[in-house]
Amino acid sequence: MAKKRKFCAYRRLERPYTRKSKFRKKSFVRASPVPKIVRFDMGNRAREDWDYSLSLVSKDNLNIRDNSLESARMVINKYFETQIGVENYHLRMKAYPHHMLRENPLASGAGADRMSTGMKMSFGKVIGIAARIKKGKEVFEIKTTKDFLEKAKIGLEKGIHRMPASFTIKVVKLQKQEKPIVA
User: Fold this and answer.
1) Can you give the C-alpha Rg of the chain in angstroms?
2) What DSSP element (H or E) covers 62?
3) Are 164 and 99 in contact (CB under 8 A)?
4) 84 and 144 in contact (C-beta within 8 Å)?
5) Which residues lie below 8 Å from residue 154, measured CB to CB, with a gap of 6+?
6) Which pairing describes strands 89-93 and 41-43: parallel, antiparallel, or unpaired?
7) 28 lies in some domain
8) Domain range enclosing 133
9) Do 137 and 93 meet the contact criterion of CB atoms below 8 Å apart?
10) Over the stretch 163-172, which tens digit does the pLDDT of each residue have?
């Protein structure tokens, strides 16, 4: 199996030119890979009376691969399950990997002239997908109660170490909404 290419080649945000067409000759992208992310909502999804909302906010414009997002999600969710408990948080991933990463492999060495097409068909084959994250965009959001606020911050910091950019944690106190009385 081939090794993954270093992500520094794909980290910058560029114009996403991934043309899909119903006509095969005009479609540059033949097939798109399935995201490796298993779930986007975790924890207690039914509860609505949370005290705080914490978010991981990006400091840079960049692409983040789907396997990096899945790795961060697994670490954060596992920490919350063991330290906070499933009923005391709602974790949601807000980034979706849709940008296709392409590679035009060029061989060098003996016999390379028979494999390479040069720049004649240089669009490249899809090798993976990534989420396009702009500065200030939330990647993960967790809602929790006042009792577990500090543990929620620690859990999000664990997820920061699994992603290639610098992030900040934004804490927002949620307003309690009174339910209308129906007579």
Assistant:
1) 21
2) strand 62-65
3) no
4) yes
5) 79, 83
6) antiparallel
7) no
8) 33-103+122-173
9) no
10) 988 999 999 9
- What is the CATH number for 69? 3.90.1170.10
Please indicate, yes or no, if residue 25 is contained in any of the structural domains: no
Q: Please indicate, yes or no, if residue 79 is contained in any of the structural domains.
A: yes
The DSSP line for 113-137 is: GGT--TTTTTT-EEEEEEEEE-TT-
pLDDT digits (tens, 9 = 90+) for 59-118: 999 889 999 999 999 999 999 999 999 999 999 999 999 888 887 777 666 666 666 666
Other beta carbons within 10 Å of 65: 22
Q: How many domains is the chain partitioned into structurally?
A: 1
Residue for token pair 């992030």: 167
Q: Do the Cβ atoms of 133 and 64 come closer than 8 Å?
A: yes
Report DSSP state, residue 10: T
- Please say whether the beta carbons of 66 and 35 come within 8 A: yes
